Amino acid sequence: MKKIISFSALLVVLAGFLLSCGKNMNGELIGVYSTPWFEPEPFGMVYVPRGSFVMGPNDQDVNWSFNSQNKTVGVESFWIDDTEISNGEYKQFVNSVRDSVTRLAIYKNQLGANPDAYVRTDREGNIMYYDEYNDIPLLNYEEKISSRDVDLVYDLDTMFYYQSNIAYGKQLKTHKLNYTYVWVDYIQASLKENKFEPLLGRYNRDISPLLNGETTDSSKVMVRKDESYQTDDGTVVNRTYYKALTSRNDFIMSRTINIYPDTLSWTRDFTFSFNEPYMQLYFSHPGYSDYPVVGVSWEQADAFCHWRTSLKNNYLAAKGEPFVQKYRLPSEPEWEYAARGGRRGAMYPWGGPYTRKSNGCFLANFKPMRGSFTDDGYLIPAKVGSYPPNDYNLYDMAGNVAEWTSTAYSESTMAFLSEINPNYQYNASSSDPRIMKRKVVRGGSWKDVAYFLQCGVATYEYQDEAHPYIGFRCARTFIGPE
User: Fold this and answer.
1) Residue 11 pLDDT exceeds 60
2) pLDDT tens-digit readout, 329-349
3) What's the domain range around 188?
4) pLDDT tens, 432-459?
C-alpha cells in the first residue's frame, strides 16, 4: 500500500512539473479549464432561450375560484421536445424494457437459477431488485439461439405472450413489463436538518446530545426512504419507510413501474361509447405510430424520462464524452413559457385571442362549440405536428392531448413560488393522502373546450391515473454557452 501511495504521489508531482513546464504560471492564479464544449442540439428538441414572463391566466377564471394569480418569473434556457411523445417513440421504451427482462431470463437460465448471482438484498435480507441494467451482459442479437436452448425459446415465448386465437395472434403479457429506476432525492438532501456535520463526521439534527456524550436515538435524523423490490413469486413491491440518516446513500431512492399504457382508459373514461377500436389498436397498430401516446400516468412518464436519460448517457459513456443533463418532465413555468413562444400576454400559443384563422380554419384540435369535435378535422387525437407551430417552433402546445408537468398541484402555489426557475415538487408515495398526488396538467386536449387551451390555464390529475387525453413531452436543461 505504501508503495502504491508513493507512486501515486510521484505521478502527481510529475504532472505538476510537466504542467508548470508547459505553461509558466509565474505563481499566478490561472484556474483549471477544459477545452471549449458546445452542447449538440438534441434530436427532436427545440432550444428555448432564458427569459422572464408574466406567469398566470390572461382571462377570467371560468370557475370563479379567485385563486388564479399572476407573477413575473425568470426561467433558465432549456431544451423541450417539439411535439408530444408519440406512440412510436414510447414503443422504443416498451421494447427496451421487454428486452431487458428477456435478457434477465436468459441470464437466469445460463446461471442455472443461482439466485445470489442476479438479485440484490437490502439490509434486512429482503430481495430488492434484479440488476438487469448493469451487471447482466447485453444480448447479442446477431447470434442465433442454439438448438440446445429450444426449451429457453419456448419459455420466453410463453413468458411474454399469450397464445391467442388466429384473429389476434400472440398477445403480449403487459404486466411483465416492469421498469426499475433509481434517483437521488435532492429535496430531502438539501433540508437544513439533513445537513452533514463535518466536525462530527456524521449527519445529526441536534448535535447537543453528542457534545454532551450522549448517543440517544432522539438525536438521529430520520429520512423517508422509497424502496422497490420483487418477491420470490415476482410480485413488485414499492414501499416507503423512515430510517435513521447515516450516509448519502440514504437519499438514493428506487421505484418499479409497469410501463405499458392503460389502453382500457378509452372505455373507462368514455362510457356508452364505441371505443373498442381505439382500445385495441391506438397504441399497438403501426397506423397510429405518429399519434401522441396516451393512457400513460405521470409515474410512467417520469420513468420514461429516466430511461431516456440512461439511453443517451450510456451512448456518450461508450464514446468517452461528457454526460448530458437528465431528461425530465418540464416544470409548469417552463411549459407555459415555451407555450407562449416569446409573446408577452399571449392568450394562446399562436398569439391571438381567437381559435380560428381568418379563413375560418381552427388552429388546434379541441372541442369546438357544442361538441362538434370534427369541425377541426379530427374526432380523437391528431398526428403530432398536424397544426402550425408557435414562434418557438413547438407543435401542439394547445389541444390534441393535455401534457404532464413535473410540478405538484396546489391552489396556493403562486403565492410562495420563487421568482427564479420556480417549481413546486413533491415526491408522493403510495401511502400519501390522495390530495398529495396531484400533478399539474397543461395545454388542454382534443376533448376540452377552448378555455383549457389558453397558455395560462392549469388543471391537475393524480399521478397514478391514466387517461386517453393526457400525454407528455420531455425537457432538458441547457448547459452550453449561449
Assistant:
1) no
2) 999 999 999 999 999 888 999
3) 180-258
4) 899 999 999 999 999 999 999 999 999 9
What is the C-alpha to C-alpha distance for residues 188 and 196, in angstroms, rounded to an integer?
A: 12
Of the listed ranges 122-131, 162-171, 347-356, 404-413, the least confidently predicted one is: 122-131
The answer to whether 56 and 70 are in contact (CB under 8 A) is yes
* This prediction's pTM: 0.83
Q: Is residue 295 part of a domain?
A: no
Position 446, amino acid:
W
* Mean pLDDT taken over the chain: 81
Question: Given the DSSP bridges, would you call strands 402-408 and 470-471 parallel, antiparallel or unpaired?
Answer: parallel
Angstrom distance (rounded) from CA 288 to CA 263: 13
Burial (CB < 10 A; 0-12, 13-18, 19+), residue 151, is exposed
Residue 187 lies in a domain: yes
Whether residue 457 is contained in a domain is answered as no
What would the grid cell of residue 230 be?
420483487
| Domain annotation covers residue 221 | yes
Residues contacting 16, CB < 8 A, separation 6+: none
| Domain total of the chain | 1
Task: Measure the CA–CA gap between 98 and 179, rounded to whole angstroms.
Answer: 9
